[in-house]
Design brief:
A hairpin with an 8-residue loop joins strand 1 and strand 2. Helix content is 71%, strand content 2%. It has a two-stranded antiparallel ribbon. About 21% of the residues have low confidence. With 556 residues, it is mainly alpha-helical.
Length: 556
């Protein structure tokens, strides 16, 4: 495709430049309107400058990708409500064997969670929990935050639903869920393990520092959480059985004991008249009273008419004090408070059962969606169907759930589709690709290396999703001239490199920014992950993981 007219090229570059600035720097001082508004502004300028017609602008919006994004968002919302991410968080600290074990768990759990629930969602729900665990164990937060961000990006490369650029690749290429998984999953496993090893080597000194309490006596008072303090405070419920009763109950229980223990009355009066001046005397008196009442239980004789003789005669029976107490308790009418408590317990049990059934249904529907994707069914309609089934089974107004969907992200994608399509019509991307294409063919090692470098740089300059939209069809067409299998391999290379490229800098991936912002705003456990601290680890990790993963993807 040749270059368009000069005016069209210039105006198209201006519109795309504004979009790029807003997408990469959403809080730019002269227009801090954010990524979504910047995307719509770029799309509007493409139409106003007549770089693209309104009809072509509507056609540029890829509805299957929008539908797949919407469906996965709704499913992720229901999984969060069903405490799936809470269980994943608990898995991180369950029987942990130290700081290095915890770091390794963060890498593994975040990678697999991102492959199934998208990397952005995983980072949103796990960042604060990881900060809390690190602070409670007196560990530096930085290695664990880097482990979450980098492992989430690497893990998300394994499936088409792991991140937005993979959604675009899966829809544009027509690669099935199963083929995508087989092509990238082995590289993801090796990449996550490699990244974890680099993290352990890089932060070995920091992770080897033991807590002050270990290897010696604690130097200060023990800090107890508020809820733990509350649970150990003195309350009437923790008193003994007799003292926890109200005064009326005390009279009912003690009266038959006193009447039946007439022989021991003198001893009890002597106890009462004894001068008690210390807590030890009080305890001794209580023990003596209990021992006396237990050893001198008398028999009370009662006369009850014998109904078999129609009241003419009477029979005698004996009853111990303990039996009298049980009779008194049995004869009491059930209290309304007790009945109310039983009803509440029944309601709570029913609610727990309903919640358990609902959670099970959510997990089964999600599992069914994954199975349908593995079977090769249409990904967009599979995700939308799973989302609608979950909304229907909730038996409540869906507005509360649908309000949690990130519509700003969907709108951002719509504007980005139009802007990138308009930029393609200027002919600039195609001209630049023609210069690079002869040297970046994937039938040689040098070509694969050059292609990876181009994707790596462009993903950090223009972001990964626009990179996929700009390069996808061109890389696939170049590989298709080699063989049909090479075309699929080219799409998988693009998916792997564009995703792992997000680990290079803090601005390379939305997941990185989410971890940074969530950590900075976390209540009580805030931490500032800086650009340079991420860059020092991100550069070597990205280069090594990308290279190792490429060897595995190419061999598929």
């Amino acid at each position: 495709m040749a270059l368009a007219g000069t005016s069209k090229v210039v105006l198209g570059c201006i519109a795309f430049g504004i979009f790029w600035v807003m997408a990469v720097f959403p809080t730019v001082p002269f227009m801090p309107v954010g990524r979504t508004a910047g995307s719509l502004l770029g799309a509007m300028l493409m139409v106003l400058f007549r770089v693209i017609s309104p009809e072509d602008a509507y056609a540029a919006i890829d509805l299957p990708i929008i539908g797949l994004l919407f469906g996965t968002m709704v499913v992720s919302i229901f999984l969060e409500r069903a405490d799936m991410f809470k269980y994943l968080g608990n898995l991180l600290s369950w029987k942990s064997r130290g700081s290095k074990d915890l770091l390794f768990r963060v890498c593994i759990v975040s990678a697999f969670a991102s492959a199934l629930f998208t990397n952005d969602t995983c980072c949103v729900v796990l960042t604060e929990f990881i900060l809390k665990v690190a602070r409670q164990n007196n560990l530096p937060p930085q290695p664990f935050l880097l482990a979450l961000a980098t492992s989430s990006n690497i893990g998300s490369a394994a499936t088409p639903i792991g991140n937005p650029q993979n959604l675009v690749i899966a829809v544009e290429s027509g690669i099935s869920f199963g083929q995508f998984l087989l092509g990238v999953f082995p590289a993801m496993i090796v990449g996550v393990l490699t990244n974890a090893a680099i993290l352990l080597l890089y932060f070995w000194k920091y992770l080897s520092v033991e807590k002050d309490q270990e290897g010696g006596q604690p130097t200060g008072p023990e800090v107890v959480a508020d809820d733990e303090v509350t649970s150990h405070r003195f309350t009437p419920a923790r008193m003994s059985h007799v003292s926890s009763l109200n005064p009326d109950d005390m009279d009912c229980v003690s009266e038959p004991i006193i009447r039946s223990n007439s022989v021991s009355t003198t001893g009890n009066e002597n106890l009462r008249s004894r001068s008690i001046n210390s807590e030890a005397d009080i305890q001794l008196a209580i023990k003596s009273l209990r021992a006396s009442s237990m050893s001198h239980e008398m028999v009370e004789v009662s006369t009850v008419p014998d109904r078999r003789d129609e009241g003419a005669s009477s029979r005698k029976f004996t009853r111990t004090a303990s039996q009298q107490r049980s009779v008194i308790i049995e004869d009491l009418a059930p209290s309304p408070e007790i009945n109310g408590e039983k009803e509440k317990e029944t309601e709570v049990a029913e609610k727990r059962w309903k919640v358990l059934v609902w959670k099970t249904a959510v997990y089964l529907i999600t599992l069914g969606m994954l199975i349908a994707l593995l079977m090769g069914l249409n990904m967009s309609w599979t995700a939308i169907t799973a989302a609608l089934v979950l909304l229907a089974l909730d038996f409540t107004d869906a507005q509360a759930c649908l309000e949690k969907v990130s519509y700003s992200l969907l709108i951002f994608f719509c504007g980005m589709f139009i802007t990138v399509d308009g930029f393609n019509k200027t002919g600039i991307p195609n001209t630049l690709w023609e210069l690079v294409e002869p040297y970046s063919r994937i039938d040689s090692a040098k070509g694969v290396a050059l292609l990876a470098v181009v994707i790596l740089i462009l993903s950090n300059v223009a972001s990964n999703v626009p990179t996929v939209l700009l390069l996808g069809t061109r890389v696939a067409a170049s590989a298709a001239s080699i063989s049909h299998g090479s075309e699929r391999k080219a799409w998988l290379i693009l998916a792997w490199v564009s995703t792992v490229a997000g680990n290079l800098t803090l601005l390379g991936s939305a997941a990185n920014l989410i971890v940074c912002e969530q950590a900075r705003r976390a209540q009580f456990f805030g931490y500032n992950l800086t650009f340079w601290s991420h860059l020092r680890f991100g550069v070597p990790s990205t280069i090594i993981v990308t290279a190792i993963g490429l060897l595995i993807v190419i061999s598929y």
